[in-house]
Each structure stands twice: as structure tokens, then as C-alpha cells.
Amino acid sequence: MTGGMAYEAMNNAGLQKRNIIVILNDNNMSIAPNVWALSNYFTELIANPSYNRFKANVWDLTGKLEGLGDRIRKIASRVEEGIKVIITPGMLFEALGFRYFGPINGHNIVQLVNILQDIKDLPGPILVHAITRKGKGYKPAENDLQALHGVTPFDKVTGISPKKAETVPTYTKFFGSAVVELAKENPKIVGITAAMPDGTGLDQLQKTYPDRFFDVGIAEQHAVTFAAGLATQGYIPIAAIYSTFLQRAYDQIIHDVALQHLHVVFCLDRAGLVGSDGPTHHGVLVLAYLRCIQGMVIMAPKDEGELRDMLYTAVRHEGGPIALRYPRGNGIGITLKPRFALIEIGRGEIVRAGRDVAILSIGNLVYPSLKAAELLSNDGISAEVVNMRFVKPIDAKLLEDVCRRFSYILTVEDHVVQGGFGSAVLETIVSKSLPHDHVMIHGVPGEFIEQGTPSELHAMLKLDAPGIASVVKDFFRTSPRKTSIETTA
């Protein structure tokens, strides 16, 4: 109910007088605790001591009166119905064209079934407002409403998932701590999340600077427009949103941010193939849909150190919107520098020199590309590995140098090949008439990828080190001795 689509749909159903029953499961939770005003309104009304005391007192008093008591109760029931129209959420839903029933105890199954049987044949749209508790009946879930929202295997007695020894923190934690460090230096920095403070790492900012942290609920569209509004007033909003969910706010990115050249920092966690959450959460489309937006800068770090420096660069960037894309999971384990460093916008780097083939990589596939180069050296193939860093703008100068020195060029990305990083490389090659013989794009094919651990999915799609090495060897064997452009899709 934090998203506008819910109200748009209810308004449409109310206007059409459709025979539809909507059950509002009101447990005061989204993923994190609800932060929306309507939720507070529901809660306050249901718990209102005056209203409940009045009702209890009337029923207690009239129970002691014989014939007169029943008549008073009937009158009180009519008064109660009038009060409900004025002070309960029924007023809102009635205005949308729904007949409202509730609030009722959603854990009283007998009562709930009876109500549904009574109303199932009533004409028109109906809303049943059920009050529930998330995790009801299972104490570990009741005691920690967030922890068991999405679970790995856990002990059924304690509700605790066994944790692997974490030698290196996650990218999310590195990001969260970097935000706090930068916020200490710059009071204009604020953080925005769409109901995912823990999942995005902004819970660290929430604890340190609660007045500079904003959770807007599951409402990515509003999060982006809110960030735009803050940017117009000189703030530097860091909008931390899962990569796959930013697409919900596409219109707002274009019209509210990019069109006005506003400095909004988009930090996109869970980029690439994220594993157990499956195709709904794979962040494999964002490069394609952000790359075509005018004025957008897009970068991806190879490790946690570069993540910190890219965030620092993004905060200091003054040329409009800028996006930072990074994966789920643990960092590489590098030694972090004591201070942040500014990265020149649109500048890549050669991380391993070679003679036979150039592997142009982006983000978290740089290290697998380096390992692939080591494997290829065992077969007598000398591979150069380039960390391009930026998908937009592409480092055209570096790309020109690579095109002049190599006949074989492979681009590698954990993103769909259509419209992604490899496409950006090819567009640059063609637009600048750079010399090229054999260019191949390697990435995620144009189909939905099912569930699996990141390592399993990377191996399946040949995006791990052995896979990249095998793609390079096949590329060498099958490419004709003439100009060619190929794709693994």
C-alpha cells in the first residue's frame, strides 16, 4: 500500500463496480517496519483506548440491563457504525468505491472464514481489513520481524541461521561505512532507501545520522523524485536501491533527475547475478536502460577499494546524475587505502599487459578475467586485461589504444549483452572509426536466468575464470581472418 499502483487499481475497480474482494493483510510491516503515514493511522485507530473503552463500557453496562439493554446496544451499534465512517480507514476505502469490513483479527481463522463466506456473494468491490502479526506462532520470527523475511537454512528451535566465517565484509557493508565516513565530512550528504535500510547498508547512516536518513517505504518512484527535490536544494542525495528495483522508477530518473541535470547519486546494490532470489532479483538490465539516458554517468568497481573511491567520486561529481553498480556478496579482501581517492570520470586502466588478446572487463568480473588470463598463459595465449571502470562515458582513448594493438578483443560483463557494456564498446568503435578485426561480446544471454548461487550461475554462463578462458580459446579457433563482430547471446 506504499505504492501508487495499489490505489490506482482500487480506484479503477471502484469505478467499474467489479465483483472483487481485496484482503488488506495489515501487519505493520513491509520488509523493514512500515514507515508510511497510513499505517500509523490504521494502528492508532485500532489501538485507540478511548474508542475501545467506550465500546467495552457500553457492552458491560447494557449486559446488566434486561430488556432495555438490548435496545441500548442496538443504538450503540448504530453509533459505532457512524463513528467508523468518520474515524476508521473504512472512510478511505469507501471513497474509492469499496465496501469496507473490519478491522478484524486475521489470526481468528473461524471468524475470517465466516466473514468471507458471508460477503462472497455481495455485489461490487469489497475490502476486508485483517490485522495480523508477522511471524505469528513462531517465537523467533515474532521477536525479530525482519530477520526471517528472507531466509537461508536455519535452526527451527532458535530461528538462527548458521553463519559462515566472514573473512571479508560484504560490498554492502563497505558501502555503508563509506557513506558514514563521507557524511562526517559533508553535512549535505543524505541517504534514501525504499524499505531496505539493512539490505543496502544505509542502516549505518541511520544509526549515526538519523536525521539525514530517509526510508520512504516500498516506493522507488517516490524515492527518486524525493532525491531530485533534495538535490534542487543543494543536498547530495545518495539513493541506495537494489539494481533490479530501480527500473520501477525509470520515468522519474529521466524526467525528475536527468532532464534537470540534478546531482543524484544512484547506488545500485545486488548488480549482476545475485543467486538464490532468482530472476526477480538479478540486476542484469540496469546498464542498458541507464546508458541511453542523457547526462548519466555509469561506473562499476572491480573491488571494495574502488567502490569506496567511486562513491567519493560520485559525491564530488557536479555534472548531473551518476550511478554506481556493485554486486552482492563479499569483497575481494584487498588492503584499503587510508583516504579516498578521486577517479577521473571516463578513465579505465590496464591491470595486466598482454600481446594476443585484450579482455575488456567491467565491475566484479575484472578479477575472474585476471584469473582467466593466468589460465590462458598456460596454453601460450598472452591476454591483456583492462578494467574499463566506466560504461558511460567509455574511455575512448584507452579503447583506441587497445584496438590498434590487438586483433582479438573480448568484452566481459555480468549483464545482458543487448545494450550493455559490450554494446557501448562496439558503438564507440564504430562511431570513432577505430580499427578492429575480431570483437566478441560475452555476458548474460537474452533470457531470464533461473535460481542458483552466483558461482553456479557464473560457471553455467561461462562468466567465471575457466569459462572466460574457454570463450577466449574458442574465439581464437573459430574467428575468421577478417573483420567480425560476435556475441555469445
Strand content: 15-25%
Rounded to the nearest angstrom, the radius of gyration is 28 Å
**Alpha plus pi helix count:** 19
Counted up, domains total 4
CATH class identity of the largest domain: Alpha Beta
Order of adjacent strands in the largest pleated sheet: 5-4-6-7-9-8-13
Kindly identify the CATH topology of the largest domain: Rossmann fold
Helix content: 40-55%
Distance between the termini: 39 Å
Structural class: alpha/beta
| Low-confidence parts | none
Largest sheet: 7 strands, mixed
Mean pLDDT, to the nearest integer, reads: 87
Structure, explained:
With 489 residues, this protein is of the alpha/beta class. It has four domains: 4-131, no CATH class; 134-163, no CATH class; 171-327, 3-Layer(aba) Sandwich (Rossmann fold), CATH 3.40.50; 349-487, Rossmann fold. The protein has helices at residues 4-16, 37-46, 49-62, 67-87, 90-95, 109-119, 139-143, 171-185, 197-200, 203-208, 220-232, 250-257, 286-291, 304-316, 366-378, 396-405, 421-431, 454-460, 465-478; strands at 21-26, 99-105, 126-131, 189-193, 213-215, 236-242, 265-271, 297-299, 322-327, 349-352, 357-361, 383-387, 390-392, 408-416, 438-444, 484-487. The strands form three sheets. A seven-stranded mixed β-sheet has the order 5-4-6-7-9-8-13, sandwiched between helices. A six-stranded mixed β-sheet has the order 10-12-11-14-15-16, with helices on both faces. It has a three-stranded parallel β-sheet with strand order 1-3-2. Helix 11 packs parallel to helix 12 (250-257) and helix 15 packs across helix 19. The relative contact order is 0.08.
